[in-house]
Design goal:
The chain is α+β, with helices and mostly antiparallel strands. It has a single domain, classed as Lsr2, dimerisation domain (Wheat Germ Agglutinin (Isolectin 2), domain 1). The chain contains four helices and four strands. The strands form two sheets. The protein has a two-stranded antiparallel ribbon. The chain has a two-stranded antiparallel ribbon with strand order 3-4. The longest helix is centred in the middle third of the chain and has 17 residues.
Length: 110
């Protein structure tokens, strides 16, 4: 039996490899949602204009990575593939540079 979870938006069963866990905070409450790659991309694209204009808050300890990095990391493979298709140099591992992430979201804004 393959362990996994159900996608939180549409209920589709996902294997552990297919789950994109997105963590976010709104009005002081922290949330976590398990999404397919497509729904994670849609979710992050909807948030992108707000994230780009928002003021980051100072982070204490490792909470900064939880609040900002986790959501982007879940989408890094798609951003890397897009960058490579645009002939933008990006490494296969590590953090995707902010300018590439921003360019990705700008290219995919509706």
């Amino acid at each position: 039996m393959i362990s996994g979870t159900d996608e939180d938006i549409d209920g589709t069963p996902l294997t552990n490899e297919q789950v994109n866990t997105v963590r976010f905070s709104v009005d002081g409450s922290n949330y976590v949602i398990d999404l397919s790659e497509d729904n994670a991309t849609r979710f992050l694209e909807l948030l992108a204009p707000n994230v780009e204009t928002a003021q980051p808050t100072p982070a204490a300890g490792k909470s900064h990575a939880w609040a900002t990095g986790k959501a982007r990391r879940s989408n890094s493979r798609r951003i890397r593939e897009w960058a490579q298709s645009q002939s933008i140099a990006v490494s296969d591992r590590g953090t995707v540079p902010k300018d590439i992430v921003q360019a990705y979201y700008e290219a995919h804004a509706s």
